[in-house]
Amino acid sequence: MKSATISAGLAPGKTIGDGIDAMNAIYTKLEKEGVIDNSFDTALSGSSRDYAESGSNTMFALLLALILIYLVLAAQFESWIDPLIIMLTVPMAFAGAFLSLKLFNQTWNIFSQIGVIMLIGLVTKNGILIVEFANHMRDAGKDKSTAAIEGAVMRLRPILMTSLAMALGALPIAMSLGAASTSRIPLGIVIVGGIMFSLVLTLYVIPAVYTFLSRRKHNTEFEDAVTESKVPEEAASAAHA
């Protein structure tokens, strides 16, 4: 068995991910031309192997975070639909994160991946505020459309305050303020861009989706209170008659 080690350096402005993609493209080209066959095997080493392993671990953490948050919300709201409505904030935040990376010419690396995982917990709280308040309004007897609109309006101030606080807190990272902070720029850009992009869309998308998907909830405590309040009135009416 023979082996060969191929080493290469990165061109200016390129990342390890770009280098791995370039090597895979060369391998695929040689395989199509018949230069190499199935008897050849390749393996990464050094920093390239660390990058590939960290990437797979990050994706696993991302999927695990989505599943756990959905299950926790399902237990809290006692519904499978409400957590689904709340989780719609996540793809909106992801879209804002990727657009921000593209706009500021940043790369998809371990820091931006960590930022995306952080976004899951940061943006779902906006949906929780709207959906929970809308459920309370529906328990009070209001229809879905009115409850969704009032939920977005009444929760606007806390949503703005918390979102702006988190975005401003991550702004120094995005601006590379501080010693040896250049490598963490994608982390800050992902957080700021994802939060702000999701903030704008959440106020419109979540109430609209809530109107279509949310099911009627019956608040037994509220109904019992209404029933008990009617009993004395009926008894008084009967006595007067």
Number of DSSP helices?
9
List low-confidence stretches. none
- From the helix content, strand content and strand pairing, which structural class follows? mainly alpha
The secondary-structure element order is HHHHHHHHH
Task: Tell me, rounded to a whole number, the average pLDDT.
Answer: 79
Terminal CA distance: 105 Å
Relative helix content:
over 70%
Q: Rough shape?
A: elongated
Proportion of residues in β-strands: under 5%
Task: Output the radius of gyration.
Answer: 26 Å
Largest sheet: none
Strand tally: 0
Written description of the protein model:
It is a single chain. With 241 residues, the protein is mostly helical. 74% of the residues lie in helices and 0% in strands. The protein is built from nine helices and no strands.
Quick rundown:
With 241 residues, the chain is mainly α. Helix content is 74%, strand content 0%.
Structural key phrases:
241 residues, mainly alpha, elongated
Secondary structure: elements and pairs:
Layout (H helix, E strand, L loop, with lengths): L15 H17 L14 H31 L3 H6 L2 H15 L6 H30 L4 H11 L1 H19 L10 H29 L6 H21 L1
